[in-house]
Amino acid sequence: MNGPSTLGRTVSALTVLVVVLSLAGRASGHVRYVTPGSDPVAVAEFLITTLSDPFNFAVLAAGGLTGLVATALYLRIRPLHRDVAVFRETVRGYRDLLPWLLRLSVGLPLVGAGFSGYFFSPVVTPGMPTFVRLFGIGLGFLLLFGFGTRLVAFLGLLSYLVGLAVYPALLLAFEFVPAFIAIALVGGGRPSADHVISRLADENTGYARIDPFYRAVAVPFVRRVEPYTSFVPVVLRIGLGVSFVYLGVAQKLMNPGDATAVVAKYDLTAVVPVSPELWVVGAGLTEAAVGIVLVLGVFVRAASSVAFLLFTTTLFGLPDDPILAHLSLFGLASALLVTGAGPWSLDAWIRDRAGRPNTERSAGSARSAASDE
Question: 287-301 pLDDT, tens per residue?
Answer without folding.
Answer: 898 889 999 998 888
